Amino acid sequence: MHMLLQFYLAQADDSPFVSYPVALLMVTIFGAVIGSFLNVVIHRLPLDESIVFPNSRCPKCGAAIKAYDNIPIISYLVLGGRCRACQSPIPIRYPAVEAMTALLFALTFTLRSGLTIALPFDLIFVAAIIALIFIDAEHMILPNAITYPGIVFAFVARALIPNLDGTGTLAAGLLPGQPAWMLSLVGALVGALAGGGSLWLVGWLWERFRGVQAMGLGDVKMMLMVGAFLGWP
User: Fold this and answer.
1) Could you tell me which residues are beta bridge partners of residue 82?
2) Which of 34, 120, 155, 210 is the most buried (most CB within 10 A)?
3) What pLDDT digit, counting tens, does each position of 93-106 carry?
């Protein structure tokens, strides 16, 4: 408990703009809002529908969802988990995604980023992973519309924020005296190859020796994105 209190006080002293509890609350609420948007992505993207238009509607009756019925988590509880118009059950996935996103945003802020320039990049990465997990669970696909931009985003993030974790002591040893952004990109490349390449190799070996496809390339592309963003220590 004493160590936890020390950690809390240290975090509170790090932010020159707002107190740590206020910043944490803001990030958590923002996470719930983003989770609401991710529900739209999870539902519409596999159906090749726009994630912008039209406004949120009940998938059963098509009734437009009013703003006061679209408050993350709270509206689900107030409505008793049912559409106001047709009383159809609202899938538990909706509040689950909102709550998970809020929690993971809070944990990312607390345990990894803090109120730093790296925070937006970390939160975008977390949001992309959440969307991929739930789309894969419901539709057994990992859309290129997320993985391809995600790979590009990972490399751009590592170039712009070279002090992200996994900047690459290996790269520093192989390329002494090089700028931090270059070492970070090398670490991203090694991480991408380790993540996506190893998964591809396992799938290739499984298919070669068992004659059965072990996984799709969507998994490989997702791990390329993950490996590039996390880098190589």
Assistant:
1) 89
2) 34
3) 999 999 999 999 99
The parts of the chain modelled with pLDDT lower than 70 are 1-17, 163-179, 213-214, 233
Distance linking the first and last C-alpha atoms of the chain: 31
How far apart CA 63 and CA 206 sit, in angstroms, is 47
- Preceding peptide of 162 cis, ω within 30°: no
Model confidence pLDDT, tens digit, residues 108-160: 999 887 888 889 999 999 999 999 999 999 999 999 999 999 999 999 998 88
Domains in the chain: boundaries:
14-116, 142-232
- Phi/psi for 72 (5° steps) reads -55, 135
Torsion angle of C-alpha atoms 131, 58, 26, 124, degrees rounded to 10? 20
Could you tell me the two tokens for 75?
Answer: 């509206």
CA pseudo-torsion sign 104, 107, 111, 114:
positive
CA nearest to 228, candidates 186, 199, 170: 186
Helix (H, G, I), strand (E, B) or coil at 204: helix
